[in-house]
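Fold this sequence, please.
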Amino acid sequence: MNKFLAISLLTFFLVACGGDDKDTTEAVAQAPEIVAQVPQTVVKSMDAKPSNGDKMTSNPQVKIETTLGEIVIELDAKNAPISTKNFLTYVESGFYNGTIFHRVMPDFMIQGGGFGSDLQKKGSNEPIQNEADNGLSNNKGTVSMARTNDPHSASAQFFINVKDNNFLNHRSKDMQGWGYAVFGKVVSGMDVVEKIENVRISAQVLGQGGMPHENVPAEKVIMNKVTLVK
């Protein structure tokens, strides 16, 4: 498959997940880099500092206990301080407990952190600054912030790359080139990530308000508990 066709197919899949919520879903017609559907309601911002404050190391670890096993990710606070603090705020508030991996695209990525088990949207904090220019790459096993076509719209949702996705990397500081901010990597449980990648996918699932979603696991993959472990 040539690069143009691959990008065209990817764009098709992402458009199909957008539904008709034009104010909150992604626009992908121009930028094949767009990976994340983020139909979250923005609520009052919380302080992005984790409760452990100055005790946070440069590589805190977070354990994601899913219905298919445990995944441990190591965050890169040195190169992605904004994304790391933002992620830990959600972790320590219990926000991710009970959310699902709502989008699974084999040979691309698995995405979660924004929907409950019945595909109801969860309200999120205010968006953060895009840190995709931090020198980190969207390689297999890395964890990145999901966003809309607005480069600085990431909030709670994240995705795990299941292959090297270099076209998601930062190239320039404009709409097409900002890329997706890597802020961590899987250090344990990549086999669980691969299990999630290979689950059976439903053709279409209706979520809150009848919004259609594609690439949704037929059997829910739930994040039962997400905790800071180091």
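The two ends are 42 Å apart (CA to CA). Helices lie at 3-16, 81-93, 190-197.
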